[in-house]
Write a structure and sequence with these properties.
six-stranded mixed β-sheet, binds flavin-adenine dinucleotide, 481 residues, Succ_DH/fumarate_Rdtase_cat_sf, 15 helices, oxidoreductase, FAD/NAD(P)-binding domain, FAD-dep_OxRdtase_2_FAD-bd, 2 domains
Length: 481
C-alpha cells in the first residue's frame, strides 16, 4: 500500500513538496483553506534565483558560483539566523530548482539583478508579445497546478476551502490534521506524515496574533500579503512543541501602492523595486524630495515615516508620492506601468508641473523648484540634499508625469519553524525532529536571517519543498516513539 503524505497549503512550497512526495511513491492529500491554489507564491513578480543555469550562461554571466550566491544570502541576512547548512543547500541546489521548473514547462529565460546580489541571477519569464509582463509567480503556480491536477490526478487528492486547525499526534508521531470545511464541519485528514506549507504571518493582524506577540509596533500596518497569511502552520506546530526562530524579523517594503478607491485596505499591491530603480522620485505632501530613492529599503521606509504625511482615509498610513516621467516609464516598462495605471488605477497622470502640484496638493512653485533642483543634481551627478549619486533618468519640469501614493508595508516574515536541511521540523525541548512533521517555504525560519534577499523565497519553496516532500514520503511510521 502506498504511503499518504498530507501537505497543508497550496503555494509553491506545498506543490513542490507534493510533486516530490509522489515521485518517491507516496500519494498526497493536499489541503488548502482558500478556494484556490496559489498563495503569495502566485503574487511574486521579480523572479527566482539560481546560479549556473543555462539562462545565466546565455546572458554571459559565467563567473557566478555557489560561494558568491551563499555569501550574498548571508550578508543580506546579517542580524538574524541565516544557517550555513541551509544557505549552502539553497545555493547548491538552485540550478537544479530552475531546471526542475523549466522541465515542468515554466520558461525562465529572462534574467535580472536585484538589490544585494553580486551577479545577475534572478530568473523570470520573458514579457508577452505586447510588451506586458508575464506574471512569474502566477505562471509558476498555474503550471504546477496543471501538473498536479493533470499528470498526478490519480495520486493527489486536492481538498480546497478546508482549513487545517490542529496537528494530530499518536505515540509522538504526527499522523494528520484536524480540519474544518467552509460549512463549519470538523473532521480529520490522516496520513503517514504531514508537510506544513502554510506560508508566513504578514497578514496576522488580530490582537492575539503573531504580529501582536512578536512585532506589536507593526500591528496596524498593511501588507502585500493575501488575507490567508496568518501563520496557521507556525501556530499549529508551536502547539505541539516545535521550535521557532527569528519571529521578530519582519521585512518591510517601502512602496506598497495605496489604492485611492480603497485606501484603508489591509492588503496593498507591491510597488516593485524597479519603480525607484527606473528613476521614480519620492515627494512629500509639501512637494519636496527627502531621501535617496535608491537607498536601502529600511532607509527609504524610515524617511517616509519621518515626513509624517498621513493618507486620508487610510487608517493612519504614512505615505509619499512616487513620481515617474516618460523616461522613467520607458525604463520601468510601458506594459508594466500600464497594468498598474490603466488596469488597476494605482497611478494617475499629470500633463504638467501645475497638474502634478494640483494632484498632490502642494504649491506649484515648490514642486517646480524641487524638480529643477533634481534635474540639476542629475546633470551634476550628486544630489546635495540626499547624497544620491545614481540617476537612472533625468526627471525635471517637463511632463507628463505618472504619480502613485506609496506606503511602507509588511512584505515577508523571515521567522518560522526551525527545520533540518531535509525539512524536518525540530522539537524545541528535545532539539530533535518531531516524527512525521515536515515544513517548507515561509512557514519555516533560519535561512534568510534579518533580511531576505529578493528572489530567494521562491527558490526556498522549490529547494526545501522538494526536500521536505521527499523526506515525508521516505519517513517510516516505525520511526514512531
Ligand atoms: C506581492 C509579493 C511579491 C513577491 N515577489 C517575490 C519574488 O519575486 N521572488 C521571491 O522569491 N519571493 C517573492 N515574494 C515572496 C514569496 O512569494 C512568498 O514568500 C512565497 O511564495 C511563500 O510561499 P509558501 O508556499 O511558503 O506560501 P504561500 O505561497 O503563501 O502559500 C501558503 C498557502 O497555504 C494556505 N494556508 C494557510 N493556512 C492554511 C491552513 N490552516 N489550512 C490550509 N491551508 C492554509 C494559504 O491559503 C496559501 O494558499 C513575494 C511576495 C509577495 C506578497
Amino acid at each position: 500500500m502506498r504511503k499518504v503524505v498530507v501537505v497543508v497549503g497550496c503555494g509553491l512550497g506545498g506543490l513542490s513538496a507534493t510533486i516530490a512526495a509522489t515521485s518517491r511513491g507516496a500519494n498526497v492529500t493536499l489541503i488548502e483553506k482558500t478556494e484556490r491554489m496559489g498563495g503569495n507564491s502566485a503574487k511574486a513578480t521579480s523572479g527566482i534565483n539560481g546560479w549556473g543555469s543555462p539562462a545565466q550562461l546565455a546572458a554571459g554571466v559565467s563567473d557566478d558560483t555557489a560561494d558568491l550566491f551563499a555569501d550574498d544570502t548571508q550578508r543580506s541576512g546579517t542580524g538574524g539566523v541565516s544557517r550555513e547548512d541551509l544557505v549552502r543547500v539553497l545555493s547548491e541546489e538552485s540550478r537544479e530548482a530552475i531546471e526542475w521548473l523549466t522541465g515542468l514547462g515554466v520558461p525562465l529565460t529572462t534574467l535580472s539583478q536585484l538589490g544585494g546580489h553580486s551577479r545577475k541571477r534572478t530568473h523570470r519569464a520573458p514579457d508577452k508579445a505586447d510588451g506586458s509582463p508575464t506574471p512569474i509567480g502566477f505562471t509558476i503556480m498555474q503550471t504546477l497546478e496543471q501538473h498536479v491536477r493533470g499528470a498526478l490526478a490519480d495520486r493527489v487528492t486536492v481538498v480546497t476551502s478546508t482549513e487545517a486547525r490542529e496537528l494530530l499526534r499518536e505515540d509522538g508521531h504526527v499522523v494528520g490534521v484536524a480540519v474544518r470545511d467552509a460549512s463549519g464541519v470538523d473532521s480529520e485528514i490522516r496520513g503517514d506524515a504531514v508537510v506544513l506549507c502554510t506560508g508566513g504571518f504578514s497578514n496576522d493582524h488580530t490582537s492575539s496574533s503573531l504580529l501582536a506577540e512578536f512585532a506589536p509596533e507593526l500591528l496596524s500596518r498593511p501588507t502585500t500579503n493575501g488575507a490567508f497569511a496568518t501563520g496557521d502552520g507556525v501556530k499549529m506546530a508551536r502547539r505541539i512543541g516545535a521550535s521557532l526562530v527569528d519571529m521578530d524579523k519582519i521585512q518591510l517594503h517601502p512602496t506598497g501602492l495605496v489604492n485611492p478607491k480603497d485606501p484603508s485596505s489591509a492588503t496593498k499591491f507591491l510597488g516593485p523595486e524597479a519603480l525607484r530603480g527606473s528613476g521614480g522620485v519620492l515627494l512629500n505632501s509639501a512637494g519636496q524630495r527627502f531621501v535617496d530613492e535608491l537607498g536601502l529599503r529600511s532607509a527609504v521606509t524610515a524617511a517616509i515615516h519621518a515626513q509624517g504625511d498621513e493618507y486620508a482615509g487610510s487608517g493612519g498610513c504614512l505615505f509619499a508620492h512616487c513620481v515617474l516621467n516618460e523616461a522613467a516609464a520607458e525604463l520601468f516598462g510601458r506594459g508594466m506601468l500600464g497594468f498598474y495605471w490603466k488596469r488597476i488605477g494605482l497611478f494617475r497622470k499629470a500633463e504638467t508641473v501645475s497638474e502634478l502640484a494640483d494632484l498632490i496638493g502642494a504649491p506649484e512653485a515648490t514642486v517646480r523648484a524641487t524638480l529643477e533642483a533634481y534635474a540639476a543634481a542629475a546633470e551634476s551627478g550628486r544630489c546635495p540634499l540626499t547624497g544620491k549619486t545614481v540617476f537612472p533618468v533625468v526627471l525635471g519640469t517637463e511632463g507628463p508625469y505618472y504619480v502613485a501614493a506609496v506606503t511602507p508595508v509588511i512584505h515577508y516574515t523571515m521567522g518560522g519553524c526551525e527545520m533540518t536541511a531535509d525539512g524536518a521540523l525540530i522539537d524545541g525541548a528535545t532539539r530533535v525532529p518531531i516524527p512525521g512533521l515536515f515544513g517548507a517555504g515561509e512557514v519555516t525560519g533560519g535561512l534568510h536571517g534579518a533580511n531576505r534577499l529578493g528572489g530567494n523565497s521562491l527558490l526556498e519553496c522549490v529547494v526545501f519543498g522538494r526536500r521536505a516532500g521527499a523526506s515525508a514520503a521516505d519517513s517510516q511510521l516505525t520511526d514512531r516513539g
